[in-house]
């Protein structure tokens, strides 16, 4: 079976957060395949765990995908500070790691970047028998600084290729495709005929034993927290994802939540944590605060990663219009305001740059939603974009991002344990990916086995199939499919 078909059949979606169907994304021809191992969200450790323990599988998938998309360059980008992970990948590249092979010549994370030379090896995939074969694509390791958001697709493409992805564009516009490292691990499973039914998740924060949990999709967050020793707080909030971009859930919502294909982190925090309070600020209050407190210092713009790439996004100017103007729909004719559509929601402006505790990111999100509702497309005005020469000096160190977000206490946790979840019930959302929700192909009362197809991507739509994470009996089919593990 062709690799692309294996990926589609396994229901693989981008595991870095957005959940874009991988079969669709990789149905392309590109010059660059970039595997995103930056894991720039300050508390997440999942990709690092996979690099240390599944390096061979990641390398194998990267080689296979590189060949499939016709890439001339295949790069695994990770922080130069990830020394153990670097070593594990290098070993996999030289064929010393598990399930890997192929020749290599690497120089280690201290090397100065692509031009200066990096770890390198031929891609390894089943057909190659673990050895270099004609037509294989060299895989190289690319060292990134420890900054946030190094893993943002557009930032990463610039770091590796020095090409600027146009505003509202995608890496394909400059001949690149970016795929998350955990996605590569899932592709390796797909190559073995194993569908994506289990997720590796960092469970950290106010838990007794921060750990990586491997959980079937549909496992409750509560079960994952229990496997990390339980919460230290009686009532808590949870961040679904990382502290910079993740979704904050209140106590009740978190107790109802279940793992999806895109869950990468479950961060338990005090119910009244700063991030929880910030996430609840109502629009009216944001506006009053912007009017009263925005001092137009422009730090939000100076440190904005998209502005630093040369994109015409200037959050301080949007704030000025928001503070002075009427409601959001009345601002949408203003071309400056419309630039909110190219905000990547990284949170640098809000959680780090702004000295007044204001919320440019959330205001941008509101504007973008209103533009969508009004059917206003983003229009590029310029034809060329050049990164700011100051960009190198304005990268936000990851540890400082953690400190300003109030999560520094958890930043230095060493997490290298794996807990396997074996839930008795899973609640699997039919909305696991970008695009259309999957359509159930099972009914209440059906008996299913682990890995069985239970919901299918609708014909001709962007989406992904869903498979059962546990065997058992289907007890409910609504927006969710509930499976109980009955004997
Ligand atoms: S969230 Fe703020 S810093 Fe990040 S891209 Fe948007 S405006 Fe720029
Ligand atoms: S950083 Fe804060 S105070 Fe300064 S311009 Fe931006 S929103 Fe206003």
Estimated helix fraction: 25-40%
pLDDT < 50 runs, ≥5 residues = 96-108, 111-134
Average predicted confidence as pLDDT: 90
Architecture per CATH nomenclature, i.e. the level-2 architecture of the largest domain: 3-Layer(aba) Sandwich
Count of alpha/pi helices: 18
Separation of the first and last Cα atoms: 34 Å
Domain 4Fe-4S ferredoxin-type: 284-314, 333-364
InterPro entries: 4Fe4S_Fe-S-bd (IPR017896), 4Fe4S_Fe_S_CS (IPR017900), Helical_ferredxn (IPR009051), Ion_transpt_RnfC/RsxC (IPR010208), Nuo51_FMN-bd (IPR011538), Nuo51_FMN-bd_sf (IPR037225), PduS (IPR017054), RnfC_N (IPR026902)
GO cellular component, one term: membrane
GO molecular function, one term: 4 iron, 4 sulfur cluster binding
Q: What attributes characterize this protein structure?
A:
alpha/beta, Rossmann fold, 4 domains, 6-stranded mixed beta sheet, 5-stranded mixed beta sheet, 20 strands, 29% helix, 18% strand, globular, binds iron/sulfur cluster
Describe the structure.
The chain has 487 residues and is of the alpha/beta class. The protein folds into four domains: 3-191, Rossmann fold (3-Layer(aba) Sandwich), CATH 3.40.50.11540; 197-273 and 406-423, Ubiquitin-like (UB roll) (Roll), CATH 3.10.20; 284-404, no CATH class; 424-487, OB fold (Dihydrolipoamide Acetyltransferase, E2P), CATH 2.40.50. It is built from 18 helices and 20 strands. A six-stranded mixed β-sheet has the order 10-9-11-7-8-13. A five-stranded mixed β-sheet has the order 3-4-2-1-6, with helices on both faces. A four-stranded antiparallel β-sheet has the order 14-20-19-16, with no helix packed on it. The protein is globular, with a radius of gyration of 22 Å. Residues 96-108 and 111-134 have low confidence and may be disordered. Bound molecules: iron/sulfur cluster (2 copies). One iron/sulfur cluster binds at residues 304-306, 313, 315, 343-349, 360-361, 364. Residues 98-116 have a biased composition (Gly residues). Residues 95-129 are annotated as: Disordered. It holds the Pfam family RnfC_N. This is Na+-translocating ferredoxin:NAD+ oxidoreductase RNF, RnfC subunit. One of its GO terms (molecular function) is electron transfer activity.
